[in-house]
Amino acid sequence: MSAEVAHLHSQLEKGEVVKLNLEYELAKVRKELSAAHQLRLEHDAASAETVKNLQRMLTIVLDKIKN
Q1: C-alpha distances in angstroms, 1 versus 4, 8, 12, 13, 39?
Q2: Cα dihedral 25/28/34/40 (nearest 10)
């Protein structure tokens, strides 16, 4: 009986180690995902600004052509 309890206790400890490792890996993945999301938002904002600038330049060129 004592050996069985010791075995179960060992299994429980191993399970806790696995749980902690999985939680750590999950935290890392969440952090990486958050960083990737932030980069995407910055890229999208920069792209939108570029499109606005190109539209302004096109408007200026078309106005000059018309006049």
Answers
A1: 5, 11, 16, 18, 57
A2: -100
Distance CA 55, CA 67 (A): 18
- In this prediction the pTM is 0.67
Condensed to tens digits (0 to 9), the pLDDT of residues 13-42 reads 999 999 999 999 999 999 999 999 999 999
The amino acid present at 66, given as its one-letter code, is K
Print the SS3 string covering the chain: CHHHHHHHHHHHHHHHHHHHHHHHHHHHHHHHHHHHHHHHHHHHHHHHHHHHHHHHHHHHHHHHHHC
Instruction: Work out the widest C-alpha separation in the chain, in whole angstroms.
Output: 98
